[in-house]
């Protein structure tokens, strides 16, 4: 099974950025652990701070992969373009968020992506990605 994790803006700073919200582990360290634990999956990872690059990646993998785990970060709440890309592809997408977005600022309570995804996992820290991965099993 071929799965890709796509992370949006500022998630490259995990482990350094707001550890009280996001924890102390870098995403690269977490990703390596995930690859070892789920070694029967063909697991890829992509991160960009640029909205258009995220759309390009969704279009690139959205017809050939078995699943996409997408944390669009702040673009979740602002990007109609990413939402349209998710709607246009055939690969199922699971929307994930590390923090409980409903316990944060009001603008984070709305997702443009949610109506177009297979499911949503919010607020379980980095475990959110693993739960999303398990949903494809």
TrEMBL record:
It holds the Pfam family DHquinase_II. GO terms for biological process: amino acid biosynthetic process; aromatic amino acid family biosynthetic process; chorismate biosynthetic process; quinate catabolic process. Keywords: Amino-acid biosynthesis, Aromatic amino acid biosynthesis, Lyase. CDD domains: DHQase_II (cd00466). It comes from the Bacteria. Pathway: Metabolic intermediate biosynthesis; chorismate biosynthesis; chorismate from D-erythrose 4-phosphate and phosphoenolpyruvate: step 3/7. GO terms for molecular function: 3-dehydroquinate dehydratase activity. SUPFAM superfamilies: Type II 3-dehydroquinate dehydratase (SSF52304). InterPro entries: DHquinase_II, DHquinase_II_CS, DHquinase_II_sf. It catalyses: 3-dehydroquinate = 3-dehydroshikimate + H2O. Its EC number is 4.2.1.10. The keyword Calcium does not apply. The active site is at 22 (proton acceptor), 97 (proton donor). Substrate binds at residues 71, 77, 84, 98-99, 108. The record marks 17 as: Transition state stabilizer. NCBIfam families: aroQ (TIGR01088), PRK05395.1-2 (NF003805), PRK05395.1-3 (NF003806), PRK05395.1-4 (NF003807). Belongs to the type-II 3-dehydroquinase family. Homododecamer. HAMAP family: AroQ (MF_00169). Catalyzes a trans-dehydration via an enolate intermediate. This is 3-dehydroquinate dehydratase.
């Amino acid at each position: 099974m071929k799965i890709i994790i796509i992370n949006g803006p500022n998630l490259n700073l995990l482990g350094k950025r707001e550890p009280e919200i996001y924890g102390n582990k870098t995403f690269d360290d977490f990703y390596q652990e995930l690859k070892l634990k789920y070694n029967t999956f063909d697991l890829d990872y992509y991160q960009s701070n640029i909205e258009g690059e995220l759309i390009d990646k969704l279009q690139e993998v959205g017809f050939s992969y078995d699943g996409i785990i997408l944390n669009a970060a702040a673009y979740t709440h602002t990007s109609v373009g990413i939402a349209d890309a998710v709607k246009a592809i055939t690969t199922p997408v699971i929307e994930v968020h590390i923090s409980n977005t409903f316990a944060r600022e009001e603008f984070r309570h709305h997702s443009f992506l949610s109506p177009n995804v297979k499911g949503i996992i919010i607020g379980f820290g980095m475990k959110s990605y693993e739960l999303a991965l398990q949903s494809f099993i």
